[in-house]
Write a structure and sequence with these properties.
The structure is a single chain. 38% of the residues lie in helices and 16% in strands. The strands form 2 sheets. A 4-stranded mixed sheet has the order 4-3-5-6, sandwiched between helices. The chain has a two-stranded antiparallel sheet with strand order 1-2. β3, α3 and β4 form a beta-alpha-beta unit. The longest helix is centred in the N-terminal third of the chain and has 19 residues. The N and C termini lie far apart (43 Å).
């Protein structure tokens, strides 16, 4: 009996410790794109290197979906994940989530996680995006801004829209973060 109680106490302590170690940037529940399913960001992505991107379906940078998916495929076995957040912020996103999901999946073959439309700047910005902007000093100024987050949850760097997934600077920074 004492052994069972001790084991339960240790398990509860380990659970509490792991819950307390969740990085602030992941302490959110987010709804998947075009779905009612929500994702516990901490449970799903803690311990992974992340590239968080505000996306849009009807933008000159929209072809970056292809490069983001290629980057995700190349590094996902090393616990790298691209997280996409469509945003109407710059008036270049479909109002219908189904159309956004269709474009991502059918046109660009996106398999990395995509989430509900999100405000990414200003006083209505989603708390996660406020945190990203505060940590880097850079709020998204347009679609396809990127934020690199290491596996410890440290927000490392912001990349503007013009930095594509194939740019050497981004690739080197991702590889460096993966090696940490």
């Amino acid at each position: 009996m004492k052994k069972k109680l001790l084991a339960l106490a240790l398990l509860a302590t380990a659970f509490t410790a792991s819950a307390n170690t969740c990085p602030d940037v992941l302490k959110f529940m987010k709804r998947k794109l075009n779905s009612q399913e929500t994702v516990n960001m901490c449970k799903e992505f803690q311990g992974k290197t992340l590239l968080i991107v505000n996306t849009a379906s009807y933008c000159g940078f929209t072809p970056q979906f292809e490069g983001l998916e290629a980057m995700y495929e190349q590094y996902k076995s090393q616990d790298f994940v691209v997280l996409g957040f469509p945003s109407h912020e710059f008036n270049q996103e479909a109002k219908d989530e189904g159309k956004t999901a269709e474009l991502c999946e059918l046109t660009y073959g996106v398999k990395f996680p995509m989430f509900e439309p999100t405000d990414v700047k200003g006083e209505n910005a989603d708390p996660m995006y406020r945190m990203l902007a505060e940590a880097t000093g850079e709020a998204p100024s347009w679609n396809f801004n990127k934020y690199l987050v290491d596996k410890e949850g440290n927000i490392l760097k912001h990349y503007p829209s013009k930095v594509t997934p194939s740019d050497d600077v981004l690739i080197k920074d991702v590889e460096k973060a993966l090696a940490m």
